[in-house]
Amino acid sequence: MALSRTPHGLLDMTAPAFGALLWLAAFPPLPTIILGLITVFAGYTAVYALNDVIDYRVDREKARIAGGLREADNYLDAVMIRHPLAQGLLSFREGLAWALGWSAVALVGAYILNPICVLIFLGGCALEAVYCLMLRISPFRTLISGAVKTTGAIAAVFAVDPDPSLHYVGALFLWLFFWEIGGQNIPADWADVDEDRQLKAQTVPVKFGPRGAATMVLWTICIALGLNLVLIQFSRIESKLPFGIIALIAGASLLLPPTFQLYRSAERHWAMVLFNRASYYPVVMLLLIVVQILW
């Protein structure tokens, strides 16, 4: 479970649920809900494990440089154990078997829901591999991370509707893309910035410095909040304007305080706070759409 960062993965599962419910403006049939939850859990579990499997040597090198993998204070991805493969708590074969096993479950579930979901999942896995391999190549690998995080939600939309609006799918992609870059990827790289400098890794905080990274975070978070309104306009729900205003207030209350603090201070502590709070953004959106549908 630590290999797949399960607490974080469970929070991420709410993004596909939100994307599907916002498009339908209704609950799908119960069998679809059950199969969808199993498939989404398997998919996120597999992809997070794949990240650690591919980065096995890099994570071991980080541990050697730092004298052990740093357990960041109040960092969501360190709730269990950070990188158990690199710490020798799991063998490489065990980690690989775990990732492949959950991938198989995800592929079967995706095929039953909609064969297009299989292609989306495989594309996400391929992009995740490219993202890991670009660690020492370019800081713009953060763009690939943004694309990877959108795949679960896009697959969920196709799972409940084989012919959704491309405008809606595009808005969903861009919303999650900018949220992932500003609220997840750059803050997460901030956690390992000291080790990454010694590794000559090309992450945004290393390449552009704390000030440049904080500026990128501010812009991407603001863009994501605006795109959430666009996404709602392309959805099928009624009362779009009131729902959009409520969603904007909720998202801004959650994301903007740590974003502004990070922009002002450029301190690692606020990057971790932003990462944690941004992880709950899809959860808040899911709760709002569930209440809207029930109401």
CATH superfamily label: UbiA prenyltransferase
CATH C-level name: Mainly Alpha
Helix content: over 70%
CATH architecture: Orthogonal Bundle
Shape label:
globular
Strand content: under 5%
> Element order, helices and strands?
HHHHHHHHHHHHH
CATH fold description: Tetracycline Repressor, domain 2
Could you name the ranges where pLDDT drops below 50 across 5 or more consecutive residues?
A: none
* Overall SS class: mainly alpha
Number of helices: 13
Q: What is the makeup of the main sheet?
A: none
Mean pLDDT equals: 93
As for the number of domains, it is: 1
Computed CA radius of gyration, to the nearest angstrom? 19 Å
Describe the 3D structure:
There is one protein chain. The protein has 295 residues and is an all-alpha fold. It has a single domain (6-294), classed as Tetracycline Repressor, domain 2, CATH 1.10.357. The protein contains 13 helices and no strands. The chain has helices spanning 6-12, 14-24, 30-54, 56-66, 92-113, 115-133, 141-160, 166-191, 193-199, 204-233, 240-265, 268-279, 281-294. The longest helix has 30 residues, at 204-233. It is globular, with a radius of gyration of 19 Å. The mean pLDDT is 93.
